[in-house]
Each structure stands twice: as structure tokens, then as C-alpha cells.
Amino acid sequence: MSRTRNTRASRLATAGVAVTSATLLAAALSPAAHADTRPTRAAAIENAAQALVQYAGTLGLTSTEGTSVRDVVVDKNGTQHVRYDRTYRQLPVLGGDFVVHLKPNGSYRSADRATRGKISLASIVPNISAPKAADLAVNALRAANLGDALKQVQAKPQLVVDALHGTPKLAWRTNAVGKDSLGNPVARTVLTDARTGAQIDAWDSIETATGDGQSLYSGTVPLQTTQSGSSYNLTDPTRGNTFTGDAANKTDLCIFGICISRAPNTVFTDADNHWGTGATSDRASAAVDAQYGTNETWDYYKNVHGRNGIAGDGKGSYNRVHYGNSYNNAFWDDSCFCMTYGDGDGTTFGPLVALDVAGHEMTHGVTSKTAALTYSGESGGLNEATSDILGTLVEWYANNSSDPGDYLIGEKIVRSGFGKTALRYMDQPSKDGSSADYWSSSVGNLDVHYSSGVANHFAYLLAEGSGAKTINGVSYNSPTYNGSTVTGIGRDKLGAIWYRALTVYMTSSTNYAGARTATLNAAKDLYGAGSAEYNAVAAAWSAVNVN
User: Fold this and answer.
1) Would you call 80 exposed, middle or buried from its count of C-beta atoms within 10 A (0-12, 13-18, 19+)?
2) 3-state secondary structure of 409
3) At a CB cut-off of 8 Å and minimum separation 6, what does 109 contact?
4) Distance CA 170, CA 93 (A)
5) Where are the beta strands (DSSP E) in 457-513?
6) pLDDT value at residue 192
7) Catalytic amino acids?
8) Exposed (0-12), middle (13-18) or buried (19+): which is 460, by Cβ within 10 Å?
9) Which end of the chain, N or C, is more open, meaning fewer C-beta atoms within 10 Å of its C-beta?
10) How many CB atoms lie within 10 A of CB 487?
11) What is the dihedral of CA 346, 351, 355, 359, to 10 degrees?
């Protein structure tokens, strides 16, 4: 019997009312007995604001710093987690983010901080000018694209405080964008020391992976659409009005959300509400895959994790298909809150609208609204791995016989010219020829799509365990660094632990050691310290050399 029922029965008895079984049943079924008494989002923010004042020293806050709420998570037991971004003298602080954890009664419990050093700068006046920072970023973009004759190159610097790379310093964060020789977009974020002009860090800004409708990859799928007169729009009113449009093989050029030019995005329409033919010759076929991927990703996050939309606010994103000229890429873009898919070149990749690609890219949106893992170094690998892990779980969740769940990333889109059967392999990441199976001190120097291998390997081991096995017709053989035998706890528990770690404990600077701590904390919250699940998390991390 719940605490609510006991309390209600006690009150009735005290009042001299005979407590019969019927009375208890009525009490149990009353609205008051089952009302959600968890603190509201607003109450959690207010409680956290009080904690900021009381624990400012613990959090490293001074009168020169400001905070803004990025995300709020309230557990079923009333525990609250409020995530903040930080400014220093009104400048954004990279690595200044932190999460305040509150007890059910709203009192302070603990905090997780991206960085712990105090911020104190002698001046916020840069020695390097904004135009100079822009030039340096453009040069870095050209260098990263191996001298390709880039067109329409633009750069916009933003003055920030960098607390991610050692002692806090004044820096320019510059997003440089352009188009390659085929007219496809390229972008790179460059972090420059505002005193010396030295490059601190740089990373790709486009987070890549590499009715009913007849799709290219998932067979015939159900679609919710919107009727408009005598025709239908590929807009889903049941999922925040998500929609899919045709980019007409054009591209756009945007800097920090300000667009110099935009590709068209004409919403697909159909006369009979039966979309596509399952062939690339029908432009609506790729749109069916994109819309279906959006639907399954939305449903996975809502039905499994209780998240209402990518941002958690019930608002739908949208898709653009047929973007660029033989564009071998798909990406999530925060500035438009949208997913964009290229058609591939036909030799290396086909249209990049496969289900696990959709789940992967849209998960970048979830990450940006929660931990905002920096897209370089070990945190960048974790960012990519988060999309691989949760995107894979979207594919398993969909339970589609034409694209059954597996631990292969992008297997549907690769073509013979790619030379491999998938983009990445979670059971043994090194099978792709570049990814890391295990952690080492140099793993953060790898491209984020390859350093992600450590977490992907951990996730496979945690779900399925080590050794040889066949799952859904696919053969796997997952080794361990320490020769141990790992017993899996299943995909559902993997997803619950990773999602909680991402949304409650990880921050922008989380590295592999921090991810181990975050997932152990999540497992402790969900299943208890010393539980089989908690011990399995520890064992899986040790098996990939994260100790």
C-alpha cells in the first residue's frame, strides 16, 4: 500500500470514520491519491535559484558572472536537476555550464560542473581584432578542406571566455562557412586566443554521420499527414507539426543563424495520401524515409524516455531532402531546428535517409539541448557516440522488418564504392579501419567519429555482453581490453542509463572518465548502488579501458 493510501486511511480513522475496504478503495481511486505532486519546472528553477545564492562559492560564481537556465529535469520522486549556462561580464563562458541537483524538498544536494576553475580575467578587451580572428578562421576552414576551391566563404567571430582548455582566457569563437567545389556546405568553428591569435581548438560545425508511404529503406510505412483542400501535405500534426520538404538540390549559407542564402524547402504534397514508390526516381520516396525517421525518433524519446520532442518542448523539427549536389552527408542544424539529407553520390553512399541516420542526427539536437558536449576531443567522441547509441536504439524501437535492429551504423546507405558494409561497428569499432576499440591517452586526438568507438563499444558490451553471438541474423564478436567476460543487461537498460547520464550528469566538457562517473551515477539512481546494473556499467567501462 502506498504512502498516500496509508496517510489517507489514518486521517479517516482519526476522524472517527470506520475504515472499510470500500473506503480504502475509494481513497485509492480518488484524484487526490494519484495527483502528480512533483515540483513544476518553474518551482525547480526557483529552488535552484535559491541554491545559487546559498552555494555560489561552491559553484564558483562571483558577482561578475551571470547564469541562464538551459534545461530542467524533474524525477518521479521529486528530485530536481537544473542545467545552467554561465556568462562572465556578459560574455558566454565555454565550459561554464553546470547542473544543480536538488532534493525532492527543493534543498541543494550536489552539482556537476563542466570545469571547476574560477574565472578572473584582467581585461575583456581583445588584442586580436574581430576581422583578424575571422581571417584566421577562414584560413583554418580552407586548410581543413585540403585546399578545395571554396566559394562564398564567410566568418563571424564572437568574443567568449574559454574555460575548456586550462586557465580561463579571452577568446574568439568564429564559425567559418562556405561551399565546396560542388556547391555543398562546409563549416568549421575555430577558437582563437584573443590576446595572441594562437588557435586553441577547431572542429567541424556540421555534426555529421557521415497516409502511408513506400520508402527507400524501410518498406511501406504509416504516415500522419495534413489534408489541404483536395490534396495532402507531408506534415504530421500529431508530432509537433513535423514536416518534410524538397531542397531541390540547392544549398544554403548561414552564419550563427543568419542566412545569406537559403535552399528552398517546398513541403511535399500528394493527391491520394499514398506517398512515394520506393525508388529514387520518385523524389517523394526519400521524403517518406525522412518523415518516418522523424516519427520513430519522436516516438522513441517520448514513449521510452518521456521527452516530448527534440527540445523537450513539444515542438516539431522539420526535414529537408535532396539537399546539395550528390551530397554525401546528413546533418542536424540547431539554427533551423531541422534535419538535412543529401542524396549521396550513388557510388559511395545512396540517399542518407536511413532510419538509424535519422535517429543519429536528431539525437545531436537532443544533446545540444542537454549536455551540449563540445564537438572536439573526448567530449566530441562522446557527442558522436551518443548519437550512434541512441540512434541505434531508435532503430531497435521501430521494430521494422525491412530494417531490423542491429549494431551497425548506416548499413543501409553504404554502396560498393565505400568498401565496407557499414559506417561503424559497435561490437568492435576498429573493424571500420579507423575507430578506437579502447581508451588511451591519445584517443582524444582522433576525429570525433573515430574516438566515439570507445563509448560505442561500451554500449554494445553493456547491452549484449562480450564474445561471439548472432543477433537478428547479424554476427558479432566483441572483445575486451582486459580479457574479461561481460554479461549484458539489455538494450532498454542501456538506453535508460545513457539518457539519464546525458540529461542529468554530463556537461559540455565531459570526457571518458567523466562519462564513466555519469553513467554510474545514472545506474545508481535507476537501479541502486551495488545493483547488477551498476556493476555491469563498471565492468563494461573497464572492458574498454576506462577505469
Assistant:
1) buried
2) strand
3) 79, 101, 102, 103
4) 9
5) 467-471, 474-478
6) 98
7) 361, 449
8) buried
9) N
10) 15
11) 110
